[in-house]
Structure formats: structure tokens, C-alpha cells
Amino acid sequence: MAVHPDVLLDIKYFELLDEDDRRSLADVVDHAVLQKGDILFEKGDPGESLFIVCSGRIEIFIRTDSGERIVLTLAGHGDLFGELALTERDARTATAVALEDSELIIMTRENLLLFFQKKPDAALDIIAALGGIVRKADDLLRTRVSRNLNEELSETMTAVQRIADWIAWFSGSVTFLTLNLLWFGIWIIVNSVNFGLPRFDPYPFGLLTMIVSLEAIFLSIFVLISQNRQAEKDRVRANIDYEVNVKAEMEVEELHAKTDRLQEQVLDRLARLEKIIAGGMRE
Predict the structure, then answer these.
(1) Among residues 140, 159, 177, which one ends one of the domains?
(2) Alpha carbons 70 and 250: distance in angstroms, whole number
(3) Is residue 49 a contact partner of residue 82, using CB atoms and an 8 Å limit?
(4) Exposed end of the chain (fewer CB within 10 Å): N or C?
């Protein structure tokens, strides 16, 4: 649907165009009307045009890795959006929905080139809008759908935690058991049997008892430190599992929504075909 030149006069991007340029541009751009709740485009849809809001409000949002809905922008009167997919000729990266009854100007790539020829300074406004989207994308790239549990925890480990993990692992090994048996056995034999050597810790082996007690105290502390780290790892693992589950749920919901939209489009086209066929049969 064509646009009246007076509509362009009320948009900041076109206010410096003269009457003839506005008429030329109005002849080639399209005009769309949305009802509240209508979806203009969804993530993954082909990007073939950008939009400028004449009236109403459009919400552009994405879903995070955990399924959280993040609103990128609320486009109001005079705001443009959808330019990223247009300039890259790629699929949409977000979803746009009308928060209220809205009217939009639709510009294709050819319309945009014609507009830049008439008003080259407008390219700076488009670049500024792209810069805002890039900044949003940088923030979103800090999160991933599936994180590597070992990498995430190893980045925050201190030297004491690394030592505690190693000691807890070594104290539960057969090697540690064998070393303790040899040490205790040699200590008791040397201090119990007369080999001509001085008995530095005779029965009841008070020094050995003290050393074993200290060993038990420090081992228990290191094991508790390692267990705390394991509890932290379990918590992170649970969070990652939750994020993956929510992401899978959101993907299923999106598939259901797209299937419903395709079904509505097919039924609408079938209804129009039936009307056309019925009209042809009457004639």
C-alpha cells in the first residue's frame, strides 16, 4: 500500500527532503498497518526490508540462553528497526510484535539506496542504529547455551583449592594407603624390636600418635575444601542443566508457534482459493 507524502513529512529522517523528493520516495515505499499483538516478523524469518514507525509501538525482543525474554528496543514514532537483516541480506535475529495498533513505513534495499541518494546524511543515522544493535549483541555473546563445566570452574580456582583437590584425590588412592602402612609398620618395628638402633619413640608411640592426629586434621580440612568445591560444581551443573532444558522448551514453543502460523496462512490461502474458484464457476 502506497504512502502519502505528508506521512513522510512527519518522520525525522525525511523532514529535509523537498516536496518532489518526498513524492518520489512515497511512490516506491510501502505502508503497513498492524493490530495490537500482531507479529511483524520472527527470528529466522528472511530479512528483506527495514521499518519506520509512523504511529504506535513495536517491541523487538530476543530469547536468552536460559529462555529469558530480553527487550532490545521499543520502537515508537519516527524510530526505525530491522535494518541489520536488510543490510546483510540475512535472516532476522529477533522478533518484532506490535504492542498497540501501529502504522509502519516499509523500505526495501532499493528504496534505501534511493533515499541515501536524496539524503546522504541519513546513512549516519542507519550506522548509529547498527552500532546499538552490535553493542547489544556483544552483551549477549557473553553467555552460551551450553557451558563447559570444567572450564568455567578451572578459571576461578585458587592455588589452595587446586592443592586441596589433589590431596583429596591422593588421600583416597591405594598408593596413599600403601605408603601409610609402610610408614606405620617401619615406625612401630624400629621402636619395638632391638636392632641396635636408638628407640626415638618407644611404646605407646606418643610422637607417632601426634603426627597421625595432625595428619588426620589437615586431611579432613583439605577434604572438606574439596567437597565444598564439588558442591559448587554440582550447583553450576544444575544451572547448566536448567538452562539447556529451558532452551529446549523455548525451541519447542517456537516450533509450535511457527507451525500454528503456517497453518493459519495455509487455511487463509485455501479460503481465498475457494472464493476465487467459486467466483469463476458462477461466471
Answers:
(1) 140
(2) 14
(3) yes
(4) C
Phi and psi at 49, nearest 5°, equal -160, 160
**Does 168 share its domain with 110?**
no
Domain that holds residue 14: 5-140
- CA–CA gap between residue 100 and residue 103 (Å, rounded): 10
pLDDT in tens, 5-22: 677 777 776 666 677 777
> Residue 145 carries which DSSP code?
S
53-94 pLDDT tens trace? 888 889 888 776 556 677 777 888 878 787 766 666 667 878
Distance CA 60, CA 102 (A): 14
One-letter amino acid at 53 equals V
How close are the terminal C-alpha atoms of the chain, in Å? 29
**Shared domain check, 166 and 72:** no
123, 116 Cβ separation under 8 angstroms: yes
